[in-house]
Please model this.
Amino acid sequence: MDQTLIRKLVSADEEYLRDESKKIGHAETISFPETHEQVCQIMAQLYETGTSVTVQGSRTGLAAAAVPFGGHVLNMSRMDKVLSMRAEDDRFYITVQPGVILQKLNKAIAARSFDTSSWDEASQEVYQSFLKAPVQMFTPDPTESTAAIGGMVACNASGARSYHYGATRRHIQAVRAVLANGQTISLRRGEIFAKGLELTIPTEQGDTITVQLPSYKMPNCKNASGYYCCEDMDALDLFIGSDGTLAVLTEIELSLLPVPALTWGVSCFFQKESQAAFYTKLARQIKQGIVAIEYFDPCALDILRRQKAESTAFAGLPFLPDSFGCAVYTELHCDTEEQAYELLEALSQYCAAAGGDPDMTWVASSDSDRDMLHFFRHAVPESVNMQVERTKHTYPEITKVGGDLAVPDEYFEELLELYDSTLKEEGLQHAAWGHIGDNHIHVNILPRDMDEYSRGKALLAKWAGEVSRMGGAVSAEHGVGKLKAPFLEVMYGTEYIREMAALKAAFDPRWMLGRGNLFAPQEEVE
Amino acid sequence: MKIIVCMKQVPAAATASIDPLTKTIVRTGRNAVTNPFDLYALQTALDIKSGVGGSVTAITMGIPAAQKVLQDAISRGADDGAILSDRAFAGADTLATSYALSLGINKLGGADLIVCGKMAVDGDTAQIGPELAQHLGISHVSDVSEILEMAPDHLVVRRVWDDVEQELYLPLPALITVAKGQNLPQLPTIPGMLRGRAAQIPTFTAEDLQADIARCGLKGSPTQVVRTFTPPVRGEAQTIDGNEAQQAGQLVQIIREVLHGAD
Model:
């Protein structure tokens, strides 16, 4: 066994103690494996002492899942190779290591350019067909494009286009993983299913693990909260969205789709939030061609206006007249221009019906125009982060207090009213944007001092309780990690959390993996 | 004010390719976009129209598929468009292109103001605007970054070069070429997109324009592309001044020095 893989964590490794949540953890040792075999060795070694292990991708997560809670940091950033390619029924599948960065992967797919030198003959052959096939895409599009694929699988990440294409889960075909004791499992979609709520998984070493799945009913909306569990489920789905608590993923097979002939973006503007919600309701009636419906609230637009006026970096943002109260961006993926124009006509009618003015819309049908709208979309979270960073100069403890809540269709208007009334009541500065098509808006509270920070966190907890009552999800795409573990308990209740814990213990009896994630006491993170 | 905007379809940056034999850009119309500088030209024209009234017509020369740039222009607010398309125009250099455009503009009844982009991002010559003004016998100002004053009979414009900033009074009719400045192109609206799609765009052939075939297309193009390369950045800019004859004399001297070394 290679004893040099694990080394002491030193002060130069400080960055590996935190992620985008800005929380800071602690750890004693760290490793940077490059292969599946090395992960097996590391886990077997750590199993002897029962050392806790925090798995890290590129640490872009917002729920502190990659922040270590003592023990060992297993950093997967050097497992960044694309390993093979396969084709089946006119679809292409690529197997990647978990440290592959989404942005780089997307570029390689679009440019049809992979380093195939270490691929086997079958993959090389498929690659030749891939080069001649229509350009492909991997559809999950979280805002943070520097996310690692392993991290995206760990939290079942989604993004704007998940409205149509679904979250990461839908695009994962197989995984290989290392368990806490160093044994390994391989799961391919469609091969192993639970019988009712009993699931048996064989290890590659010949053992079997039988678990009782939790009996809760998952929310009927976008969801990244806790283990994916239901009767007769595919075993693969249990490991997607498990927040690094069941096994360490070492190989992930992703499915690709052909890029549509046309990608158009349409922004409609409204005076009131209720009008935006009504437009969304109408747009959701269209079943083909709409892949994203995104919202920007009045505060988000005001932030952009200020940025455009004050910073040359944002001068390229389109002009936003004062009459634009809030905005809804709709993205179309179409096979023909005919279809795209038909959708435009429908959206024009819906915009007018909801109280908007079709003459005050933006349509992006070329690359440069789309780039402008993408800039617009990404400028909002970027600006909010800049504002929080400024506040941190005075109050270093302050972080962005961001919600990731989603509810079933019938509760969305109630949720909007809840946000509006409670934010007004508390007088907190905020900005909201996100996936209105999925009833999933990120309300971000921007505290200006420690009092507002505390009140913001309390408000977020209150919303989590209300959303749970509505049958919604306390995390729809960021994952639960450490920060939202208390909310998960509110959402499912202690009995179901106990069932989740029993499930975890079956795979990880020494409770080593992702300690603090899903089940953590909040106060253990600084 | 009657304003005509010259627009060009160029290959999308990621898909541009050069014909290895003719060393000219391959134009198939697939993955083609509106020259980005022309969008700034169009926005400038629309801003002037909104200031002093009038109409904006977009014109282009190219294969039939190039009428997409005119639909794009109409979707962004142009009133109408016209395309010059004929096999006789194929392979045109800037001289032959500007000749054909001048005939097209005359066919449209002329204009008070012609607006071009500073240059096209495929050829990078920045020659069409000045040559077109010459064909039409009107004044021109290149690299305009801002319209400081607009009136039915004149404009006051600002242009910024490396070491010079000028404010110029320009009586109309005239031509300007436009750089990226305050005139950030606005996006089309939904009704604009539908208008662009439905627009009836007239096509003018060489015969329609009564063009001298010897001055059109490859035949009318004295330019020979020997090779294409990125010139080294020398960090030098030189301003020449004086009357036309003096400026031309200085220019000839500079070109001679570049080609043959100092006398």
Summary: Chain B has a mean pLDDT of 89. DSSP finds six helices and eleven strands in chain B.
